[in-house]
Amino acid sequence: MKIYGDHQSGNCYKLQLVASFLGITYEWIQLDIKNGDTKTESFLKLNPNGKIPILVLDDGKVLSESNAILNYLAEGSEFLPKDPYLRAKVLQWQFFEQYSHEPYIAVARFIQHYLGIPEERRVEYESKQSGGHKALKVMEIQLEKTPYLIGDFMTIADISLFAYTHVANEGGFDLSQYPKINQWIERIKNQKQFIPMKSIDM
Predict the structure, then answer these.
(1) Of 142, 129, 53, 57, residue with least CA distance to 96
(2) What CA–CA distance (Å, rounded) separates 50 from 54?
(3) What integer pLDDT is reported at residue 202 of this predicted model?
(4) 151 SS3 class
(5) Distance between CA 192 and CA 173 in Å, rounded?
(6) For residue range 32-56, what is the model confidence (pLDDT) as tens digits?
(7) Cα 15 to Cα 2: distance, rounded to the nearest angstrom
(8) 66 and 14 Cβ atoms separated by less than 8 Å
(9) What does the alpha-carbon distance between residue 109 and residue 132 come to, in Å, rounded to a whole number?
(10) Max Cα–Cα distance, the chain, nearest Å
């Protein structure tokens, strides 16, 4: 299988992380979203939405959307519960990640870490802070109750939210005020086969 992605993207890092945890082999196709690699005719044939990551299976079938790919890769593993309620809780956190977390924390990170907060995007950057802290507080409340987001074991819900949470400081979010999140981050980093996000050449 092939994964098309960008090392600078947290959504792509999710797939690298779950593949490492599960020992899945794949070919990585590096794309640079800032250079327009996802807007080429050949890429748009794979994903008309023009976004990464995408997964291309050996038979040519294509999957897009990072959390959908996570669910596919984790099927049958300990990272995706068989119990219907727990599986729904995984999905609950993944929907939370895409609608209440990523639009604030990931976007703020992009504006600060990649663009250096240009003046024309400063208002947008500042507007992301309250939403990002709201999402982090929701996570902190849950992690005060359980070591992982749905209980005592790690799932792809944790992988989904780890990707951008552990680098939230790069978007101006002070994680020191979230002790349970910090403990959770270290818990995941201490897992066997953990791999860090590749550093960015600024």
Answers:
(1) 142
(2) 10
(3) 34
(4) strand
(5) 28
(6) 888 899 999 999 999 999 999 999 9
(7) 11
(8) yes
(9) 11
(10) 49
Cα–Cα distance list, 91 to 115, 160, 199 (Å): 32, 10, 29
Question: How far is Cα 96 from Cα 32, in angstroms, rounded to an integer?
Answer: 27
SS3 (DSSP) at 98: helix
* DSSP secondary structure letter of residue 148: B
Give Cβ neighbours of residue 47 (< 8 Å, ≥ 6 apart): 38, 54, 62, 64
Between the CA of residue 54 and those of 1, 59, 166, what are the distances in Å? 11, 14, 23
For domain 2-74, give its CATH number from 1.20.910.10, 3.40.50.300, 3.90.70.10, 3.40.30.10: 3.40.30.10
Interstrand relation of 2-5 and 27-30 (parallel, antiparallel or unpaired): parallel
Distance in angstroms (rounded) separating the CA atoms of residues 49 and 174 = 33
Enumerate the domain spans of the chain. Answer: 2-74, 84-189
Collect the ranges in the chain with pLDDT lower than 50.
201-202
Say what the pLDDT of residue 198 is: 87
Place of tokens 């519960």: 81
Tokens of 143: 């992690």
Q: Which fold has domain 84-189?
A: Glutathione S-transferase Yfyf (Class Pi); Chain A, domain 2 (1.20.1050)
pLDDT at 199: 67
Report DSSP letters for 76-113, one per residue: TSTTS-SSHHHHHHHHHHHHHIIIIIHHHHHHHHIIII
- pLDDT at residue 102 in the model: 97
Cross-strand partners of 3: 28, 55
